[in-house]
Specification:
- The chain is of the alpha+beta class and 134 residues long.
- It has one domain: 2-Layer Sandwich (HIT family, subunit A).
- Helices cover 28% and strands 19% of the residues.
- The structure holds guanosine-5'-monophosphate (5GP) and zinc ion.
């Protein structure tokens, strides 16, 4: 896509701090890191998010992301990280070229955890039935 910033990064038309590359993926430092070592993994070919991400690339994505995460963890000296994707505007997606966040986590790093709200077995059972039928 012409005006997509991550397509431009993938084509190396604009600069980024690339830390790993495979046939179909690129990993580079997030410009506004949530923690030290926050990296984005993107497919080189444009897609919007997980919804249109080609399943044929799933194994390469996981292998590449694990290899990338290992390099980061060794560098920033921790063992834990979040691996996540914001899928759509309401989830917080701001760049509409699929990207998977690798966010290293540290003891007491104060990064917000998602709030949890209690439910009931009755509500959970009803919802599970509804979802299963789709
Ligand atoms: P989203 O909210 O869409 O899941 O995440 C987009 C991420 O891309 C953000 O964490 C933001 O800091 C990062 N980002 C946005 N523009 C650029 C850029 O031009 N270069 C780099 N390296 N990261 C960017
Ligand atoms: Zn793109």
């Amino acid at each position: 896509m012409n005006d997509c910033i991550f397509c431009k990064i993938a084509k190396k038309e604009i600069p980024s701090f690339i830390i790993n590359e495979s046939k179909n993926f690129l990993a580079f430092l997030d410009i506004n890191p949530r923690t030290k070592g926050h990296v984005l993994v993107i497919p080189k070919k444009h897609c919007t998010n997980l919804t249109d991400f080609p399943s044929s690339l799933a194994k390469e994505l996981i292998d590449f992301s694990k290899e990338t995460a290992n390099k980061i963890l060794k560098t920033v000296k921790t063992t834990d990280f979040n691996f996540s994707i914001n899928n759509g505007k309401f989830s917080g997606q701001e760049v509409f070229h699929a990207h998977f966040h690798i966010i290293p986590r540290f003891k007491d790093d104060k990064l917000a955890q998602w709030p949890k709200s209690p439910s009931s077995n009755e509500l959970l059972k009803k919802l599970a039935e509804e979802i299963k039928q789709k």
